[in-house]
Design a protein that fits this description.
Pfam families: GNAT_like (PF18407), Hydrolase_6 (PF13344), Hydrolase_like (PF13242). The chain contains eleven helices and 20 strands. With about 350 residues, the chain is α/β, with parallel strands linked by helices. The strands form five sheets. Strands 5-4-1-13-14-15 form a six-stranded parallel β-sheet, with helices on both faces. Helix 3 crosses helix 4, helix 3 packs across helix 7 and helix 5 crosses helix 6. The radius of gyration is 21 Å and the shape is globular. The C terminus is likely disordered.
Length: about 350
């Protein structure tokens, strides 16, 4: 294969949404243009989101509004993964108590299950996802049903979710209400657990997917769990410090500023006698600290620094104090720290 750009290596992009394609209602700058170019390149786009509050149709409408190519069939949600998980365990028509919004209800109906809102309906399962205006009353019904023996499923376990106003409490934070009240931990359908990746593969038929995300603990760990390549974009939650101090399951295959990197050759990051080299930068680990020297695109410095730090950390994680000094200087695009 004649590989000219990063995207040439893959047949499908499994794209996270919040922090990758949009923030709140607004597009991440440049994301729609990069996605249109990817579609024109013949790569399948699948928008894979832990957000279970909206239906695939509503999400596709939002994507088209910001200029991204999308139809309902291109959207894969944690609500769909949670619904399949329940449907594989119970007969069609079974009652499922929904602690969440229309996204969950629609996904359950698509599998022949019956969404309900009270524990008095004797639900076989409780499925929880984030939704605006989630009430104490509905959380209470969920807790009652779980105490009665209903299977407890969480669409995702994200502690926070990025928005245009900053990070807000996510579904993982809200599920703690029912868990604290009942002592029962939920089965998680969303990233980084396998059900959502499985749902994505079933719906796309991909053989060479690239997972694209902004979170190390969901997107990147999910890719690691599935044994597929991943691209971390720095437009959402994860920071350069998070990247350098990442443990083995949170280390992406690639790192980029944004989605435009898909349409450029990815720079080589290679080991040399003096450390790790990436396009004008050399990173090494000496006396328990990260050292970086070079000039040019600071992102290439971060790539070299990540490789050197991860090699030194092995199966562990680097200490923040051992890498912070380099982070403070690499943004200038020219540094020599010893």
């Amino acid at each position: 294969m004649d590989v000219k750009t990063l995207i040439d290596l893959y047949d499908t992009l499994l794209l996270d949404l919040d922090g990758v394609v949009y923030l709140g209602r607004d597009a991440v700058p440049g994301a729609p243009e990069s996605l249109r170019e990817a579609a024109e390149h013949g790569v399948r786009l699948a928008y894979v989101t832990n957000n279970a509050s909206r239906t695939p149709g509503a999400i596709a409408d939002h994507l088209r509004e910001i200029g991204a190519p999308a139809g309902p069939e291109d959207v894969v949600t944690s609500a769909q993964a949670a619904a399949r998980l329940v449907a594989e365990r119970f007969e069609p028509g079974a009652a499922v108590l929904v602690v969440g919004g229309m996204g969950l209800r629609s996904a359950l109906r698509a599998h022949g299950l019956r969404p309900v809102s009270t524990a008095m309906d004797s639900p076989v399962a409780v499925v929880q996802g984030i939704a605006p205006g989630l009430s104490y009353g509905l959380l209470s019904e969920g807790a009652l049903a779980v105490r009665q023996g209903a299977l407890f499923v969480a669409a995702n376990a994200d502690s926070t979710m990025p928005t245009g106003r900053g990070e807000l409490p996510g579904n993982g934070a809200m599920t703690r209400v029912i868990t604290t009240a009942t002592g029962v931990e939920p089965i998680v359908a969303g990233k980084p657990e396998p059900p959502l990746h499985r749902e994505s593969m079933l719906r796309t038929g991909s053989t060479r997917p690239l997972v694209v995300g902004d979170r190390l603990d969901t997107d990147i760990e999910g890719a690691t769990n599935a044994g597929v390549d991943s691209l971390l974009v720095l437009t959402g939650v994860a920071s350069p410090l998070d990247l350098l101090t990442a443990g083995p399951r949170h280390r992406p295959t690639y790192v980029a500023a944004d989605l435009s990197a898909l349409h450029r050759p990815y720079p080589s990051v290679r080991r040399s006698e003096g450390g790790w080299i990436c396009d004008g930068w050399t990173a090494s680990w000496e006396e328990g600290r990260l050292h970086l020297e070079g000039q040019g695109d600071p992102l290439n410095g971060l790539r070299a620094a990540s490789a050197a730090t991860w090699e030194a950390a092995g199966e562990g994680q680097a200490d923040e104090d051992a890498v912070k000094t380099v982070l403070g200087s690499v943004c200038t695009g020219r540094t020599s720290l010893r």
